[in-house]
Design goal:
The protein has one domain: Globins (Globin-like), CATH 1.10.490. The N and C termini lie far apart (50 Å). It has eight helices and no strands. It has helices spanning 10-14, 16-33, 38-41, 49-62, 68-73, 78-82, 89-105, 110-127. With 132 residues, it is mainly α. The longest helix is centred in the first third of the chain and has 18 residues, at 16-33. The protein is globular and about 45 Å long.
Length: 132
């Protein structure tokens, strides 16, 4: 029996806007609560509300859902927007571990987690602007 390839978007696979918002909120909750993520927390403003919205809006479009970020701000220009912040290997790794932890806590499907983490790694590594 031939299996049909999954043609649903990552946005649909994760569970749509409610589950994506839950993931983003847990990601930022962990960042604010866990000492292991202090380096990346320090790169954010005092209130994480705007950061939560922007990541949700960005991931929505990036995952194949509504292009909420682009509708509000235009092209994300991720690297350019992050250049003012010192992002090295430690910051990249903290971001990835924080997101992985949030996905595990929310019991995102294992194969979807692997796929997302590979893509997140590529993007996070591309954002680095420091050697260390």
């Amino acid at each position: 029996m031939n299996e049909q390839p999954d043609t649903s978007t990552l946005y649909e696979q994760i569970g749509g806007p409610e589950k994506l918002r839950e993931l983003v909120d847990r990601f930022y909750d962990l960042m604010a609560l866990e000492p292991a993520f202090q380096r990346i927390l320090q790169l954010h403003p005092g209130s994480l509300d705007n950061s939560r919205d922007k990541l949700f809006w960005f991931l929505s479009g990036w995952m194949g859902g509504p292009n909420l970020y682009i509708e509000r701000f235009g092209h994300p220009r991720l690297r350019a927007r992050h250049l003012p912040f010192q992002i090295g290997i430690a910051e990249r790794n903290q971001w990835l571990i924080c997101m992985k932890t949030a996905m595990q806590e929310l019991q995102v499907d294992g194969k979807l987690q692997e796929r997302l983490l590979r893509a997140f790694y590529e993007t996070a590594d591309w954002m680095r602007n420091q050697e260390g």
